Every structure is written in structure tokens, then in C-alpha cells.
């Protein structure tokens, strides 16, 4: 019995097309002019042999590149549960994929950042130190930081957390609310800025507690608070997923939203498990992802990139009403 057939190579294509190996390579790469007739002959030979083209990884390595951009997202399980994170990752992968680059998802405690990556995107809310940072700087790896620490040498992509939260707080104040609680994210730049915006209007706002952007975690957090006091007329959450958890727990206790309690969030993600539209601060999740990926591509090319702060917008839904 004969063994498996060998995969066709570029040399096989060159032989079949009657051209030199270098001419066949140029026909694929397009780096130098090759006549249309020669290119058509090479492409036809490749199709007949089932040759899909040169190995992009090998080509990138010859150019001193890996063809891969790393993105540190903290705990991978948490990132895949958060619709805001998924929307951004989708946009990043779309832009990088269109440029022929792969995306490597990394946790915040592994050594993947020490791989030969073309660039690294740091997107870990709540983590403001990273052992890999010094290594990346030493190797001159382009670094793009999303809503994170102001590290020297990195390009920073952010959103206007504070003004968005302040606009949301002003909306609640106009509705007559004075006793306001807040559910926050873990200590981080977004958490501090969103809370600062809230306190521009409600300096005495009560911190209910902090948790991940997770429905069950938010429900568990407010369960004890409702039992202890829970005398606020409105709860402002730092993510829509948290807000959904608060709405569900309030209803479980017979508290009507928004008649008895107003609840607001942040992000502008879809919450199909609720039968009402949340009042929230909408951030440009896909736009943030595209901007981040484009900054990484520019840094890979050696182009200087300015820091970016993207605008947000208040969206009034059905989850807030008069105090």
C-alpha cells in the first residue's frame, strides 16, 4: 500500500508552470512586477496541483515577524462571559484578520507575552501591574493598553468614563433621586473614573459592593445589601450585566423596577434575558476594538500613534423612573 501523497510545494508549481522558483514566488507575493500571462500560468498550475500558497508564518519569520498579536484579557473564562469584552474582541480579530495577522488570547499570569509577538494589547481591567511589561519594553514590542495603566511607551485607548457616569447621575437627579447606591467593578481605572463621575452629582452615594461583570455575582452581592438596609431609590452599576443581576434580584424580592427602584448600567450591551431596556451609558465597543487593532497595526509598522479617548452616550431606557 502506498503512503500518503506529498503536499505540493512552490517548486512543483514552478516546474508545472515552466518558470523559475523565484518567478513563481514573485507571482504569489506581488513584491515585484510579473507579467499577467506569467502570473495566470503560475496560478493555474497551483490550482491544478492543489497548492494554496506560501506559508504565511514562514514568510513573516523571514521578515522578522511572527504574524501574531497577543492580547492579555485576564481570566479567559471571565472574558468570554462578558458581552462587552466579546464585542471588542470580535472587532479586534476582524481588523487583524483582514491584515493577515492572528490573535493570541493570553491570561494575566502566563508567559505567552514572552513569545515572539508582533505587538501586545493589554486589556485587563483591575490589573495595573504586569511582570511581562518589563520584558516587552526590553524587546521593544509595541504595546497598546486599553482602559488601563499609563505605562510609558504604550499607546493608550480609553473611553470617557467620567462624563458618561456624570450624565447618568444627572438624569437620576433630575428624576428626584437623592439616595443612590452603586455596584462597582474591581479596583481599576474604569472603576475609579465611573465612580468619580457618579460622585460629581451624588458625593454621598453608597457603595453596595464590587464584583465582576457577571449576573450571578451581582445578584449575590445585592442579596445581602437588600437584607441589611437597601434604602436607596436608585442603584447605578458599572456594567449592564451587573445591572441585569440587580434587576432580577429586586424582582425576586417583589421590588418593582423602576416603580420602587431605578437601576442603571454602563456599556450599552444587549440584555435579551430582561423584558425591559436598561438605562445605560453606551460605549462604542466595536469602535474601541477597531481603534485598538488599528493602533497595534500602526505600531507594528513603526508609525507613532497618539492616545485616543472615545466618546460615550447616555441612553435612557425603561429601568429608571421618578424617585
From TrEMBL:
The record's section on CDD domains has: HTH_LacI
Which controlled-vocabulary keywords does the entry list?
DNA-binding, Transcription, Transcription regulation
Protein's UniProt keywords contain Membrane: no
Query: Which residue ranges does UniProt annotate as crossing the membrane?
Result: none
Question: Which residue range or ranges hold the HTH lacI-type domain?
Answer: 8-63
Q: Which InterPro entries match?
A: HTH_LacI, LacI/GalR-like_sensor, Lambda_DNA-bd_dom_sf, Peripla_BP_I
GO MF annotation: an example: DNA-binding transcription factor activity
At the top level, the lineage of the source is: Bacteria
The protein's name is DNA-binding transcriptional regulator, LacI/PurR family
Q: What is the lineage of its organism?
A: Bacteria, Bacillati, Actinomycetota, Actinomycetes, Propionibacteriales
Amino acid at each position: 500500500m502506498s503512503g500518503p501523497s506529498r503536499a505540493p510545494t512552490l517548486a512543483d508549481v514552478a516546474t508545472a508552470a515552466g518558470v523559475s522558483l523565484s518567478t513563481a514566488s514573485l507571482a504569489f507575493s506581488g513584491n515585484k512586477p510579473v507579467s499577467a500571462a506569467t502570473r495566470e500560468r503560475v496560478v493555474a498550475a497551483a490550482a491544478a496541483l492543489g497548492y494554496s500558497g506560501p506559508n504565511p508564518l514562514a514568510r513573516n519569520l523571514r521578515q522578522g515577524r511572527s504574524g501574531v498579536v497577543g492580547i492579555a484579557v485576564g481570566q479567559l473564562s471571565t472574558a468570554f462571559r462578558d458581552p462587552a469584552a466579546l464585542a471588542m474582541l470580535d472587532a479586534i480579530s476582524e481588523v487583524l484578520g483582514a491584515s493577515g495577522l492572528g490573535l493570541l488570547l493570553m491570561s494575566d499570569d502566563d508567559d505567552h507575552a514572552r513569545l515572539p509577538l508582533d505587538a501586545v494589547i493589554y486589556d485587563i481591567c483591575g490589573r495595573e501591574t504586569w511582570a511581562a511589561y518589563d520584558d516587552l519594553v526590553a524587546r521593544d514590542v509595541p504595546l497598546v493598553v486599553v482602559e488601563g495603566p499609563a505605562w510609558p511607551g504604550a499607546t493608550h485607548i480609553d473611553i470617557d468614563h467620567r462624563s458618561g457616569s456624570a450624565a447618568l447621575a444627572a438624569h437620576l437627579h433630575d428624576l428626584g433621586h437623592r439616595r443612590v447606591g452603586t455596584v462597582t467593578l474591581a479596583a481599576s481605572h474604569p472603576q475609579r473614573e465611573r465612580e468619580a463621575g457618579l460622585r460629581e452629582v451624588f458625593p454621598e452615594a453608597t457603595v453596595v459592593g464590587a464584583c465582576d461583570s457577571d449576573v450571578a455575582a451581582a445578584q449575590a452581592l445585592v442579596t445581602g445589601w437588600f437584607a441589611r438596609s437597601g434604602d436607596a431609590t436608585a442603584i447605578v452599576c458599572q456594567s449592564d450585566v451587573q445591572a441585569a443581576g440587580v434587576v432580577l434580584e429586586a424582582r425576586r424580592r417583589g421590588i418593582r423596577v423602576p416603580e420602587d427602584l431605578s437601576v442603571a448600567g454602563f456599556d450599552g450591551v444587549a440584555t435579551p434575558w430582561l423584558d425591559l431596556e436598561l438605562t445605560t451609558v453606551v460605549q462604542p465597543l466595536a469602535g474601541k476594538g477597531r481603534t485598538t487593532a488599528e493602533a497595534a497595526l500602526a505600531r507594528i509598522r513603526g508609525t507613532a500613534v497618539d492616545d485616543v479617548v472615545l466618546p460615550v452616550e447616555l441612553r435612557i431606557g425603561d429601568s429608571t423612573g421618578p424617585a
